[in-house]
Amino acid sequence: MKRILVDMDGVLADVYARFFELYKEGTGLTKTTNEIMGLKEAEAFPEAIRWVETTGFFRSLPVIPDSQRVLKLLNESYEIIVISMATEYPASLTDKQLWLNDHFPFINWKQIVFCGNKSLIPADLMIDDHFKNLDNFDGETIMFIQPHNINAVDHHHRRVSSWAEIEKILL
Amino acid sequence: MKRILVDMDGVLADVYARFFELYKEGTGLTKTTNEIMGLKEAEAFPEAIRWVETTGFFRSLPVIPDSQRVLKLLNESYEIIVISMATEYPASLTDKQLWLNDHFPFINWKQIVFCGNKSLIPADLMIDDHFKNLDNFDGETIMFIQPHNINAVDHHHRRVSSWAEIEKILL
Fold first, then answer.
1. CA of B101, closest CA in chain A: separation in Å?
2. What pLDDT is attached to residue A5?
3. Superfamily (CATH) of domain A3-14+58-170
4. Where are the domains of chain A?
5. How far is A52 from chain B (nearest CA, A)?
6. Which of B94, B95, B100, B103 to mutate to test the interface with A (most CBs of A within 10 A)?
């Protein structure tokens, strides 16, 4: 059975949707996706470093459309490992696990990895939104398009912008 | 550089020391190591399942003697990965990371893995106190002796009862 590493933030969890909300709450202003296209997260939202270190942030994230339905299907045909670079932010760890339990109850605790280096885990396919993870990966790669990676030149990774596309490729 | 997987509970963190304290706080009675030799954790302390699910438990554990000094030395000659089966207990995750930051500040967040299946990560050597982890591991193994594993028949794993012994073997 092929093993797939599935990232959380920007792939299952809609981090930007929450960033837009918090920006509006903090400033009263509205920022749009168009304004942040091509910017790194810290350029688009300098406040983000403080937000992600706050207990409750990762528990509050909306789910990326179709990810629950498609991941549940994938979980029947592949060995799914949900993996998140989380050890940089201790407060995020418990929140992330509870969020997964809430929204992806079919993912068993044995299928979850919180770490600081994804290259520790060999697999056949990685779905991620960051070059730093995909570029160091030996297997097949799928880049999930997000504002921070949309303009990056890339000839190596297959690019998708929805879970419906992942469904077509893998199922 | 050889990679070593180092377990937390029962190898770096003295879980039993805290169990004895909590037992005394709860009952007023003293339980000794001799009384629990050869018993599984849940047999020795039926209350343990509740204790380990309580926020703060893993943050409060004493450090196993010599583990800080020896692991710091090992960290200069080996690729050390501290790895804990933690995703079964969401409340433990943040506590465990903060405990590591407190007591093992030389372990970088990139060297930490919280998961539910240690066999996902290939390595040369595993130091652990549970057969379920050591028996499924492909590399060299060192079993850290604890009350729950002391009587188990075992012909495969090298057994140690202190970090001073690990120091002699590996340095």
1. 9
2. 98
3. HAD superfamily/HAD-like (3.40.50.1000)
4. 3-14+58-170
5. 14
6. B94
CA distance A40 to A46: 10
3-class state of residue A75 by DSSP: helix
Q: How are beta strands A112-115 and B112-115 bridged, if at all?
A: antiparallel
- Tens digits of residue pLDDT in A35-50: 999 999 999 999 999 9
Global pTM reads: 0.96
The 10s digit of each residue's pLDDT in B67-123 is 999 999 999 999 999 999 999 999 999 999 999 999 999 999 999 999 999 999 999
CB contact (8 A) between residue A114 and residue B111 = no
* Per-residue pLDDT tens over the stretch A105-118: 999 999 999 999 99
How many Cα atoms within 13 Å fall on the side-chain side of residue B148? 16
State the complex-level ipTM: 0.95
Find the chain B residues whose C-beta atoms sit closer than 8 A to any C-beta of A.
81, 86-88, 90-94, 96-98, 101, 108-117, 120-122
Task: Name the interface residues of A facing B (CB cutoff 8 Å).
Answer: 81, 86-88, 90-94, 96-98, 101, 108-117, 120-122
Q: For all residues of chain A together, what is the average pLDDT?
A: 96
Q: A9 an active-site residue? A: yes
